[in-house]
Amino acid sequence: MKQWEVVIGIETHAQLLTQSKIFSGSSTAFGAQPNTQANAVDIALPGVLPVLNRAAVECAIRFGLAVDGQIAPRSVFARKNYFYPDLPKGYQISQFELPVVVGGQLTIQLGQGNSLTEKTIQLTRAHLEEDAGKSLHENFHGKSGIDLNRAGTPLLEIVTEPDMRSSAEAVAYAKALHALVRWIGICDGNMQEGSFRCDANVSVRPLGQKEYGTRREIKNLNSFRFMQQAIDYEVQWQIATIEDGGRIGQATVLFDPENGETHTMRTKEDAHDYRYFPDPDLLPLIIDREWVARTQAAMPELPVAKRDRFVTDYALSAYDAAALTASLDIADYYEATVAIAGKANSKPCANWVTVDLAARLNREDREIGDSPVLAAQLGNLLARIADNTISNNIAKKVFEALWNGEGSSADEIIEKLGLKQINDSSAIESLIDGVLAANPAMVAEFKAGKEKAFNALVGQAMKATKGQANPQQVNELLRRKLG
Fold this sequence. Notes:
- This protein is an alpha+beta fold and 483 residues long.
- The chain is built from 15 helices and 17 strands.
- The protein has helices at 54-66, 167-183, 224-243, 289-297, 303-314, 318-324, 328-341, 346-363, 375-386, 392-403, 410-417, 425-438, 440-447, 451-464, 471-481; strands at 4-15, 70-71, 74-75, 77-81, 91-95, 101-102, 105-110, 117-130, 134-136, 145-147, 154-160, 196-206, 216-221, 251-256, 261-267, 277-278, 285-286.
- The strands form 4 sheets. Strands 1, 2, 6, 7, 8, 11, 12, 13, 14 and 15 form a 10-stranded mixed β-sheet that branches. Strands 5-4-16 form a 3-stranded antiparallel β-sheet, with no helix packed on it.
């Protein structure tokens, strides 16, 4: 049976975090009433001229630096001609032959735990362009409405080489890119609002063949889950079509999440169909070395560098470091926690941030920036575990109290609720004597070789002190008492 290789490239439209549009002063704020954020330039009234937004260019430079791409000293805007009702000018201002960023790469991680592997995805280009408006169909009977609020919104289109070989790799790339554009502050990454949209170019070829198969482009994938489902379906459909004697035609397709299938929207256009030519209303974009150097100086530490530093400085595993650098907010929260808890507690800090805190945030659908427990409060809590003021179990009660706003610090809650751990060995020994005297049957079971009985005795000892006895001392003294 013939084996097939999947070939995937991704095109991503990232809406840039600017206050105004790329060629006009209209607001880019989301959620306004239709057509209230479209001025004369956006709706293409005769005689108007576009003026390039410097902040959008700054975003493109930041991205180029982040992916180690070549920032073009001279790039050119072009007119991409096509005719949709939501495209007021009859063309889209984009970049074609001379984009602002050429090349670059992004490293993705695959697998989990100790089986993590890395792969580098090469980027072809990133270019600036304006968004189109939006056609609205659901609110009208037999008609469509046009909302031009999005028309002219600044986009950075990021194009990869066809380097991905599975839906898992495509999703890993999309997630890594999503995290990066948020990390460097050029896009909010809100997929529900259309700020981060991916198109997947998918083809298949017999394993070992060098020539690419005919690709089909899956448009506007607005969730990672749908991306994986759409690519998996498209791959199986293409293989089945070829094996049944059919041919794949180049096309643009849409994914229907309701039935998990892709459907052809239109035959795929090639570049010549758009009749690109340089826009005569816009001068070439010139980016000098000084501008790039100023932008470079203002860049944050990038995810890969921070991940490597976390492994070196905090003795974390590659898996923990990857989880803690999934976003800049998480990384900053972790480092602020360690700063209070102490570097010796870097591993417990990682566990609490990626497990206990993350679980609670997920349960309440919150981002880490909205956590009721601040990094300094969590650091204080972990410091009290480390100095044996409280046990891990008691710490969970203190965390809950902090989450509910029952105190400003772990110290305050521990004092107020009387939760200090009992570390007095003579007091614990006396307690254990009482537990052994009250549970002769459990003692006999343990001496008969039943280890579970020991755990039951530990449970009785902890219950007697409402969990406040030092668990390690309880275990050690109990074993000694039982011989």
